[in-house]
Amino acid sequence: MTAEITVLAENTAREGLAAEHGLSFWIRYGDHAFLLDAGSTAVFAENADRLGISVGEAEFAVLSHGHYDHGGGLEEWFRRNSGGKVYARKDAFGDYYSLTSGRPRRIGLPDPVRACADRFCFLAEDCQLFPGVWALGHGDAPLEERAAKEKMYIHLKNAGEIPSGTERLPAAVYEEAGERFLPDSFAHEQCLVLQTPEGLVIFSSCSHGGIDQTVREVMERFPGTPIRAVLGGFHLKGGPGGGEMPFSPQEIRKLGETLREMEIPEIYTGHCTGQEAFDILKDVLKDRLHRLYAGRKIVF
C-alpha cells in the first residue's frame, strides 16, 4: 500500500501557508485518509483549506503525545468533524510541564480539548488501527533520566493517576514553591508506523524518548522488515523560541551516526529539532536528511 503525506503544520512553511510551533500530518494510505496531530491551533486546518484538503473528512485522528503543540488544534478538528475518534495513549491527559525556560511551563493539552474526552479512544497497548497501520508506545523502556535531561516533567498535584512507569523514577524530582514535578516517563508518547511496498515509514512527532530508541523499538516489533523512512521532530532544542539545546553537539553527531548505521534511506525532520541540530545531523547524514515544512508533500 502506498502512502501520501502532506505536512499541514510545522515551524516553517512554504510561501502562502502559515507556520507555527507545532506539527501536523495529513496521511492518505490506500483508500484511507486520516490526521496525525493537529498542531497548536487552527493553523493546520487553514493550511489544509489552502491546499485543497478537507480535514473534516478524516476517518480518525492520531495524537502522538499529550502536548499542546500537537493536540491544541484538535479543538478545530472536532468542530469540523462530528464523529471521528482520536487514538491516543491512556496517559495523554496528564498535567505535563517543561522547565526549559527556567520556570515550570504547562505544555499539556488545553482544556477545550480535554473537555472532549468522549472523542478519544485511549490505548493501553500497541494497536493495529487497520491493516498496515500501527500505533506503538515505548513499552517498558526506562526513559525518566532522559526526561530529566530534557527537563520534561509531570506535575503531581493534579495528575490524577500517576502515569505508568513512575515506580522507576530516579531521584531527579523538581520542586517549585512546594509543588512537586516528576520526570516524565513518556508513557503518553506513541509513534505511528505505516507498511509500504519498500518498507516501514515511521512517524515520531517529537521523539521525546529518543528517535534512535523509537527506531529500535519498531525494529524489534517488526524483525527483518526494512525501514523506508522516518519523519518527525527529534526534540534536540529548547522551547518554541529555540532555547538552549539539552544535548551537546557531540551527542547530536553521535545520534546522526547511529541513524546512519541503521541504514534508513530517508529522514525528514523539523519542528523541535532546531536549526543547529539539523545542521549537525545534515553533516553526518548528507542527502538522507530532509527538512519538514508546512506544504511539503511526500509519497512512499
Folded structure, characterized:
With 300 residues, this protein is an alpha/beta fold. The chain contains 8 helices and 19 strands. It has helices at residues 43-50, 68-71, 74-80, 111-114, 144-150, 211-221, 249-261, 275-285; strands at residues 3-9, 24-29, 32-36, 61-62, 86-89, 96-98, 105-106, 120-123, 127-130, 133-137, 152-155, 174-176, 179-183, 190-196, 199-203, 227-233, 266-270, 289-291, 297-299. The chain has a 7-stranded mixed beta sheet with strand order 8-5-4-3-2-1-19. Strands 9-10-14-15-16-17-18 form a 7-stranded mixed beta sheet, covered by helices on one side. The chain has a 5-stranded antiparallel beta sheet with strand order 7-6-11-13-12. α7 crosses α8. The termini are close together.
SSE layout:
Layout: E1 3-9, E2 24-29, E3 32-36, H1 43-50, E4 61-62, H2 68-71, H3 74-80, E5 86-89, E6 96-98, E7 105-106, H4 111-114, E8 120-123, E9 127-130, E10 133-137, H5 144-150, E11 152-155, E12 174-176, E13 179-183, E14 190-196, E15 199-203, H6 211-221, E16 227-233, H7 249-261, E17 266-270, H8 275-285, E18 289-291, E19 297-299
Helix pairs in contact: 7-8
Summarize the structure.
The protein contains eight helices and 19 strands.
Q: pLDDT average, as an integer?
A: 91
The CA-CA distance between the termini, in Å, is 9 Å
The chain-level structural class is alpha/beta
Please give the radius of gyration in angstroms: 18 Å
Annotation field: number of helices: 8
Give me the side-by-side strand order of the main sheet: 8-5-4-3-2-1-19
SSE topology string: EEEHEHHEEEHEEEHEEEEEHEHEHEE
Portion of residues within helices: 10-25%
**Basic shape:** globular
Number of strands: 19
Biggest sheet overview: 7 strands, mixed
What share of residues are in beta strands? 25-35%
Uncertain regions spanning at least 5 consecutive residues? none
